[in-house]
Write a structure and sequence with these properties.
By secondary structure, the protein is an alpha+beta fold. The protein has five helices and 14 strands. β7 (150-152) and β8 form a beta hairpin. It starts with a helix and ends with a strand. The mean pLDDT is 94. It binds 2-oxoglutaric acid.
Length: 262
């Protein structure tokens, strides 16, 4: 998995400008099959949509993928970083008929990390606008806004804001109601295609209105050069780590550096 074989520096340029880039056929068939099997095994737990996270912390295909597939180097190349650490991973599965849209949001205000974060979102099935494509507001990573975190219901819809009085955050516009005002992009994906996007990118995912086509996605979050621990930001308690000093690079035993330029 090397950027030069998958699209070269043009991908890194697009990422920097737009905050999101699609890397076609980033995964081999073997990794794809392993992640699909591991995803289906996890789903047997029958949890809520956002609950399937930190899968890479136990032995198995998710951990192997994070450590052995070369995804860390690919991410460092896309983000032009000299190192990458693993933050956390999640599977997002919209089964046929699960029509709820994943609401518009940004990720990083939920996390106690300042500085560059990249998410890789890997399609495990064919994905399009009918079965739950991700949508992005191109360039929104550069707006300099920290949108307020919010609670969602089981299916991922907005319920209410958290951190209501915290002045570092601002409320989100109603992006869905004003779609025409924004440069919204989405891509049809084949299994093995990978989206890489910035932690401050405004994004959403459509519902799955098909009767038969699953939409399985595997997301992994990575910290890059200048990503530092910021315990004053965020609500994700599983990312709190007292072994990292505030302001220090977001790397520790729990959040290991998985790639570094020699
Ligand atoms: O796949 C989805 O429904 C949402 C994914 C998402 O929001 C994310 O990876 O940050």
């Amino acid at each position: 998995m090397r950027l030069q074989d998958l699209g070269g520096t043009a991908l890194a340029d697009t990422y920097q400008k737009d905050g999101v880039v699609v890397v076609r056929q980033a995964l081999s068939g073997e990794w794809l099959e392993r992640l699909r099997c591991a995803t289906d095994a996890e789903l047997k737990r029958g949890e809520r949509y956002f609950a399937y996270r930190n899968l890479r912390t136990k032995p198995g295909s998710f951990k192997d993928f994070c450590l052995e597939s070369g995804v860390g180097r690919l991410v460092a190349e896309i983000g032009r970083s000299s190192w990458t650490s693993l933050v956390f991973d999640t599977i997002f599965v919209k089964e046929p008929g699960s029509q709820t849209r994943t609401g518009w949001h940004t990720d990083q205000p939920y996390w106690p990390i300042a500085g560059p974060i990249i998410t890789t979102w890997i399609a495990l099935d064919p994905v399009d606008a009918d079965n739950g494509a991700m949508e992005f507001i191109r360039g929104s990573h550069a707006w300099g806004k920290k949108f307020r975190p919010f609670l969602t219901d089981q299916a991922g819809e907005f319920v209410e804001y958290i951190c209501k009085d915290d002045p570092q955050y601002c409320d989100m516009p109603n992006f869905e109601a004003e779609r025409d005002r924004y440069d919204i992009v989405n891509w049809d994906l084949e299994p093995g295609d990978l989206l890489a996007f910035d932690g401050f990118m405004v994004h959403s995912a459509m519902g799955n209105r098909t009767a038969t086509r699953r939409r399985r996605g595997y997301a992994v979050r990575f910290a890059l050069d200048r990503a530092v621990y910021d315990p004053n930001q965020g609500v994700a308690d599983w990312l709190i780590d007292d072994t990292i000093a505030p302001g220090a690079p977001y790397v520790s035993e729990h959040f290991p550096c998985i790639y570094s330029v020699k």
